[in-house]
Structures are given as structure tokens and as C-alpha cells.
From TrEMBL:
It is found in: Periplasm. This is Tripartite ATP-independent transporter solute receptor, DctP family. Residues 1-26 form the signal peptide. InterPro entries: DctP_fam, TRAP_DctP_sf. Gene3D superfamilies: Bacterial extracellular solute-binding protein, family 7. The keyword Signal applies. GO terms for cellular component: periplasmic space. It holds the Pfam family DctP. Its main location: periplasm. Keywords: Periplasm, Receptor, Signal.
Length: 327
């Protein structure tokens, strides 16, 4: 049997037509987080994956990797930039290490309470700050979530800001919070979440900067004497898609994935608004000394922070205006 060149050409053309008629190959996306499985962010990521599989008719799915399984946030951000990782729910803190303007979200006492924080993060000003991420960080930001407001848990008694001086205090490793605790004279100590409980138990650190969810759920209070309810900073999260991966998607998939991820990231704002008072109330009953602190407690540290970040974060005045408008 003789196969002619024209026959091969016709066969190739027919194959191309048949392939074009087939649905796009199913895609299993990988989404990384640093939070443990019970955390609100992890549950939101899983809900996003489940709805994407449903709405795409099984064409797409999401495998969620919590608890730093894919590395710390700096490593995951690098993976997003190269396209080795598809998606992440990540602290705005880590993004601010690459895009300093995002550090504006950590202005001390920007938000009055957890509900106010949600309104700030849903503002046009906050959403507009995502627009530069593809160019400056190689990622597409779809919207904001939250991990509540920050508190301080200490192994010793805390009666004033001076009591924080010299304390080894666990922080998330990023510049805005580092500058804040340096201004207080503390010894800020970056440390990943999985190491915090044991570090507080054995005295490797004297205190921690943490949200009420994890203080309650992971029982950090068990090895502390004082819980200082200060609400001194927001701690927002952002849903990210690798810009390389995003660019490879069809317009239809871009719209679907962006819509659903934004929905589930945003849902964490409502979760924290609802549950933060419950977690706070739980901590009132754990037998530890509990105190409240406002801006006056921290004194000149707030002014020092503002002096540093008013230059690094040009959106800070606009974000403060948005905060004022959403009270």
C-alpha cells in the first residue's frame, strides 16, 4: 500500500480538526499555603477547589497543599513567578517584601475592628493596589482575605510597652512588622508557624505576635502568662495566580477561576468578622491574664513606623482615606 504526501496532509488536517473539536485538557492546579489544615484560609482554598471542579464540569480541579508543604511563602512566591506553582493564598506581608507599597496595609491601627478591616480590604483603593502585581511580582491578585487583627501573647507580665523591650518576640518575616517591633525596642524573631508552639513552650521566644484564631485553636496560650488584646495591625491575605499560568488560560477559564477564587478569598473576611469575637471570648476563659491596649500603649513606635512607611508605601494616604470613608 502506497501512502502519498497528499494523503498524509489530508490525514494531518483531519486530525487537527478532530483535536480542535475536543474539549481542552483537564487541568489540575496546585495551590499552596502556609496555614495548617484546620485554618480558615485552608478551608476556603478547599472550598474554592471543590466549586471550580463543579462549575467546570470536572474539567479543572485544585490540589491544596497546606502547612508549607511546598515551601515557605518566599519560596512559593518564586514558584508562582516561574509557573512551577499555579496558585496560592498568601499573606500580603510576603508580597510586600517584593512590592513595598503593599506594606501600607500594616499601618498600626488602620482598622478600628475586624469588620472595619473587611470594609477597607473591599474598598476600591485596596483593589486598585493589586493592579501592579503582574508587572512587579509576576502574579495576578484576585482579591483579599484576612487573618484577623494582631495580638501579643507573652510568657511574662506585660503592663506597658516598656515591658516588651528586649523580648524575643516571634513575628512573620516581613519588613512592616519588623520595623514596628524594632521601634518598640523588642527583638523581633522571624519564625514559621509550625515552630511557634514549641518555641514558646521552651522559652526560645518570650512572646509572639499572632491572631486570636491561632492563639485559641492551636492553644498558644498554654505556655503564656499574658494575652494582650491590642488589635494593633490588620493581617490581610491575597489570592494569587501565577501570571505565567494565568496567561496560558482561555478567556473563559480566566473569568471562571478569577471569579471563584475571589469569592472564596473574600469569604474569609466574613468568617473572621463572625468568629473573631467567639475566639476572643474563648481566650477570656483560659485562666491567663488578659489586657486591652490601644494606640497610646505603643507610644512613639507608631510615629516611627509612619515615618518609615510613608516613604516606602505611596498608597498609605489613600488607604487611610479609604479607612476613614468606611468607618
Amino acid at each position: 500500500m502506497t501512502i502519498t504526501f497528499k494523503g498524509l496532509a489530508r490525514g494531518a488536517a483531519c486530525a487537527a480538526v478532530m483535536l480542535a473539536a475536543l474539549p481542552a485538557a483537564a487541568k489540575e492546579f496546585r495551590l499552596g499555603l502556609i496555614t495548617p489544615p484546620p485554618h480558615v484560609w485552608t478551608k476556603a482554598a478547599e472550598a474554592f477547589g471543590a466549586e471550580l471542579a463543579e462549575k467546570s464540569g470536572g474539567e479543572h480541579s485544585v490540589s491544596v497543599f497546606p502547612a508549607r508543604q511546598l515551601g515557605n511563602e518566599a519560596q512559593m512566591l518564586q514558584q508562582l513567578q516561574t509557573g512551577a506553582l499555579d496558585m496560592a493564598f498568601m499573606t500580603v506581608a510576603e508580597v510586600s517584601n517584593r512590592v513595598p507599597n503593599m506594606g501600607a496595609f500594616y499601618a498600626p491601627y488602620l482598622a478600628d475592628d475586624i469588620g472595619h478591616a473587611a470594609r477597607i480590604l473591599r474598598s476600591d483603593t485596596a483593589r486598585g493596589m493589586l493592579e501592579v502585581l503582574p508587572q512587579e511580582a509576576g502574579v495576578v491578585g484576585v482579591g483579599y482575605g484576612s487573618a484577623g487583627l494582631r495580638q501579643i501573647v507573652s510568657r511574662g507580665e506585660i503592663n506597658s510597652a516598656e515591658d516588651l523591650s528586649g523580648l524575643k518576640l516571634r513575628i512573620t518575616p516581613f519588613d512592616p512588622i519588623l520595623d514596628f517591633y524594632n521601634a518598640l525596642g523588642a527583638a523581633p524573631t522571624p519564625m514559621p508557624l509550625p515552630a511557634v508552639y514549641d518555641a514558646l513552650a521552651n522559652g526560645q521566644v518570650d512572646a509572639i505576635d499572632m491572631d486570636v484564631e491561632l492563639i485559641d485553636v492551636l492553644k498558644y496560650y498554654e505556655h503564656a502568662d499574658t494575652i494582650l488584646f491590642s488589635n494593633h495591625m490588620m493581617f490581610p491575605m491575597v489570592g494569587l495566580i501565577s501570571a505565567r499560568v494565568y496567561g496560558s488560560l482561555s478567556d473563559e477559564d480566566k473569568a471562571l477561576i478569577t471569579e471563584l477564587m475571589a469569592k472564596h478569598v473574600d469569604s474569609t473576611l466574613d468568617t473572621y468578622t463572625e468568629k473573631e469575637p467567639v475566639w476572643t471570648e474563648n481566650l477570656m476563659g483560659v485562666g491567663k491574664t488578659t489586657k486591652e491596649a490601644g494606640p497610646d500603649f505603643f507610644g512613639d513606635a507608631i510615629t516611627e513606623w509612619e515615618a518609615i512607611w510613608s516613604e516606602k508605601a505611596p498608597s498609605l494616604p489613600d488607604l487611610r482615606a479609604a479607612a476613614e470613608a468606611t468607618k
